[in-house]
Design goal:
By secondary structure, this protein is an alpha+beta fold. Helix content is 24%, strand content 26%. The chain has 4 domains: 3-113, OB fold (Dihydrolipoamide Acetyltransferase, E2P) (Beta Barrel); 130-222, Beta Barrel (OB fold (Dihydrolipoamide Acetyltransferase, E2P)); 250-299, Irregular (Dihydrolipoamide Transferase); 328-543, Chloramphenicol Acetyltransferase (2-Layer Sandwich), CATH 3.30.559. The strands form 7 sheets. It has a 6-stranded mixed sheet with strand order 17-26-25-24-20-23. The chain has a 4-stranded antiparallel sheet with strand order 1-8-6-3. Helix 10 crosses helix 11. The chain is elongated, with a radius of gyration of 31 Å. The protein starts with a strand and ends in a 7-residue tail after the last helix. 33% of the residues are buried.
């Protein structure tokens, strides 16, 4: 039976997602837990795993395309299965077709759910009983804490009702029920934590005895077959419940209850929004369970005329913005830098160099007719010479080896309207300062005119990023992989310095070396900077 996989809600504020990369293609076999795709949300690019098994029959959103949460993302089913009926709606299943898929799947799941194995030899689950486990509410979440229960044992639960507020490693999020029934058992008290997929609650027909289920349930020994417990997650995915569904069920607001000690019943997210907007919670009518103030109440709150708090400034401006589609360059930069930052263990070494001799050296060098070099040219040359003495810093990391480069190709970061490119000065250690200056000028011009060839941007063994011309004193950079290091160069600053025991006016420059700890140890990075210091503070040595 075909299963409709919809765009998941991977963050509490996510309204739509963009497919960054498909890791499976039509025709591939899918196992439960396989990563289907990488999804760009409003917060991060996250891996989306399948909760179903079968064959990937259809991809509804191509790489780079965007769709709203709960819109068709893919279809998984039996190899060769006819899914034309599902696709008649033009790529997004209609509510009728979705319901047909859900009903047919539900009937088979209900049959199998009655046979879910309960760990430790307990009897099968009673008919209609559903075990609700701790959900994975963020890509990095490993366990969650129950901040607040919004339902109590014995309460009737409708699909879309908020069961509890769960604290994850990123935020406190509302967790809604995807089943209807009676709340029979609560597995965690408020303030208690559990790992993802451990028992959170049990829902089923009123009066059902589930004491054996609660006592014997264990996530570590829970069945992994597709017809077993994890199928509840599959059901969750296909039922396509959305915040809109909850809002449609919203009843007319009732006065917000306030306890004797003055506490207002409010969700953590609504409380945070109220603080940001300067809203007095006692003036807000809650539309949640038992009059609880929830996010939508804050978003829709309009104070009565003249009701602004005394002494508070209430802005009257209108929020405005322009959406600009991400260019392919911007997407590529985001992917590369994200991969580097979160795969390479970065550490940073910061130094401050005396630039008096370098300033005098440059002035004398530029006095030669038809010659003009920049401080950046001096730094590139100095790095190239220092790298020859410290090949570990000139190395590259690969999954199965570390490459110590005997040649020095230095990438020079250049800002362009769409982002950042890194053209490469090849064999920089063998070139003179004027040659380096000419090469950098030519490459930077090509970069800004979008004339760089792929060959001119490949093969770097080290990178220099200079923001000194923008008045930046100090900063750190993300390593341009597979390189092992990148040097961040700041502005030359006039400041008081101590020389020969006297305070005098001097000129210094701050630099920061970002290193990949897999290839460059701290002492190795420090030794490289000492060699670099010798060249920059005494640039005439580069000519010897």
């Amino acid at each position: 039976m075909a299963i409709v996989v919809n765009m998941p809600r991977l963050s509490d504020t996510m309204e739509e997602g963009t497919v960054a990369t498909w890791l499976k293609k039509v025709g591939d076999k899918i196992e439960e837990g396989d990563i289907l795709a990488e999804i760009e949300t409003d917060k991060a690019t996250m891996e989306f795993e399948s909760f179903n098994e079968g064959t990937l029959l259809h991809i509804g959103v191509q790489e780079g395309e965007t769709t709203k949460v709960d819109e068709l993302l893919a279809i998984i089913g039996d190899d060769g299965e006819d899914i034309s009926g599902i696709l008649n709606g033009g790529g997004n299943t209609s509510s009728e077709s979705k319901d047909e898929v859900v009903e047919s799947e539900s009937s088979s799941e209900e049959t199998s759910s009655n046979n879910i194995d309960v760990p430790n030899g307990s009897a099968d689950l009673p008919e209609g009983v559903i075990v609700v486990t701790m959900p994975r509410l963020s890509d990095t979440m490993e366990e969650g804490t129950v901040a607040t229960w919004l339902k109590q044992v014995g309460d009737a639960v409708e699909e879309g009702d908020i069961l509890a507020e769960i604290e994850t490693d990123k935020a406190t999020m509302e967790f809604e029920s995807f089943q209807s029934g009676t709340l029979l058992e609560i597995g965690l008290k408020e303030g208690e934590s559990a790992k993802v997929d451990e028992l959170l609650a049990i829902i089923g027909p009123a009066g059902t005895d589930v004491s054996g289920v609660a006592a014997n349930f264990s996530a570590s020994s829970a069945p992994t077959k597709t017809e077993d417990a994890p199928k509840a997650e599959t059901k969750t995915e296909v039922k396509t419940s959305t915040p809109a569904k909850t809002e449609n069920k919203t009843k007319a607001p009732i006065p917000t209850p306030v306890t004797e000690n003055g506490r207002v019943y409010v969700s953590p997210l609504a409380k945070k929004l109220a603080e940001e907007k300067g809203i007095n919670l006692t003036k807000v009518q809650g539309s949640g369970e038992n009059g609880r103030i929830v996010k939508r109440d804050i978003e829709n709150y309009e104070p009565a005329a003249g009701a602004a708090s005394v002494g508070k400034f209430v802005p009257s401006g209108q929020e405005d913005f322009d959406d600009v589609d991400n260019s392919q360059m911007r997407k590529a930069i985001a992917k590369a830098l994200t991969n580097s930052k979160f795969s390479a263990p970065h550490y940073y070494l910061s130094v401050e160099f005396d630039m008096e001799n370098a300033m005098a050296f440059r002035a004398q060098f530029n006095s030669i007719p038809d010659t003009k070099i920049s401080y950046n040219d001096i730094i590139v040359k100095a790095c190239a010479l220092a790298l020859k003495q410290h090949p570990q810093v000139n190395s590259q990391w690969f999954a199965d080896k570390m490459r110590l480069n005997n040649h020095v190709h230095i990438g020079v970061a250049v800002a362009v309207p769409d982002g950042l490119v890194v053209p490469v000065v090849r064999f920089a250690n063998e070139q003179s300062l004027p040659q380096i200056g000419a090469a950098v000028k030519e490459l930077a011009g090509k970069a800004r005119n979008k004339k760089l060839t792929p060959d001119e941007m490949q093969g770097s063994t080290f990178t220099v990023s200079n923001l000194g011309m923008f008045g930046i004193d100090t900063f750190t950079s993300i390593i341009n992989q597979p390189n092992s290091a990148i040097l961040s160069v700041g502005n030359i600053v006039e400041k008081p310095v101590v020389k020969n025991g006297q305070i005098v006016v001097g000129h210094t420059m701050k630099l920061s070396l970002a290193c990949d700890h897999r290839t460059v140890d701290g002492a190795t990075g420090a030794q490289f900077l000492q060699t670099l210091k010798g060249y920059i503070e005494n640039p005439v040595t580069m000519l010897v």
